Amino acid sequence: MAPPPAKRRKVQIQYRDNKRKKPYKAHKKQFLESGQRGFLATCNSNEWDCVKECYNILNQYADVLYGADEGEIKPDRKKDGKGHDSNAVIEEEGSTDDGNDIADDLQKQIKATKEKVKRRFQVVETGVSNCVFIKTVLENPVPLALHIIEDIAKTKKQASRYLTRLIPVQAVCSVSKEGIVKAAARICDKYFQTEPTTFSIVYNKSYKHNIDRENLIKELATLIHAKNADHKVDLKHPKKTFFIQLLKNLCCLSIVDNYVRYKKYNLIELARAEECPDNTDTEVKDDKEAANDGEVVEAKNAEKVEEKIVYKDKKRLAETEGSNAKKTIKIAADS
């Protein structure tokens, strides 16, 4: 026997109330800012998968070097029978016993709830596609990145599928010659006020900027030689590499070790490589020799281009002579 219409209508109303959608809270995006430090990650596609792999790799190796991240662990708060926080109840009771004002207690509770737990690694927007930045609270991200690179080079285990390059960033500054040189001066003392070593400067950009590349590289080289005049330029296998990456409106700077030896910090290529070459047999050259080598390479390339042009001209000449010979044979046969 069917239920009366009144009860059926009541059930339908209750069902509709349960199906109401919860309000959506949009998360605010965090953007890359000057003064931050972290890791610059690149990928070919699937940026969110790249971010997940960055979190997994960085947290895995950071736990080994620095221990577990206690900042991300949230304390378990016990609730009483009414669903309220027992710790908050105890604090309120203690405050009333001490005679403190209720307004002060409320302000303390609001401040405690608004305090965000600082994560060890947090993704921020760069404004460049397939380019991810993971900011960190670590004072220097270079040791962690070098530990990851050396472990992958030793074990030959591919740790990522979408993440290709992972480069530490020690300073983020504005895209200007003065800002880059000023930020570079702050990080050069630790790495170049040492014994003579070999170095190179890598300059990359994602957008078109009004910065003269050659003048900037010369000024940075002068800055490095000011720390120690015996430093030499080595473009093949430098021990130190000054890395510069120009993004949309900010610039990332870092000084990394064995950049060329470790496949330009490409995790996938590093896992596939059979053996990384040592830096013992590298040829050290000064600025003039490096410039002369560049001129020799350009001259060789020009000779190759000329040879290709001459070969194409000879090939065309042979084809035209062959076609003319065929025409003369055909005319003789017709006659």
UniProtKB/TrEMBL annotation:
- What sequence ranges are listed for the domain THUMP? 151-257
Could you confirm whether the keyword tRNA-binding appears in this record? no
Which SMART domains does the UniProt entry name for this protein? THUMP (SM00981)
Pfam families reported in the protein's UniProt record: THUMP (PF02926)
List the keywords (alphabetical): RNA-binding
Region (Disordered) residue ranges read: 1-24, 72-101
Family the UniProt entry places it in = Belongs to the THUMPD1 family.
Ranges of Basic and acidic residues composition bias in the record: 72-85
Which named protein is this?
Answer: THUMP domain-containing protein
Q: Which GO terms describe its molecular function?
A: RNA binding
Q: Which GO terms describe its biological process?
A: tRNA modification
Composition bias of kind Basic residues appears in 1-11
Which residue windows does the record flag with biased composition (Acidic residues)? 90-101
Show the stretches that span the lipid bilayer: none
State if Membrane is listed as a keyword: no
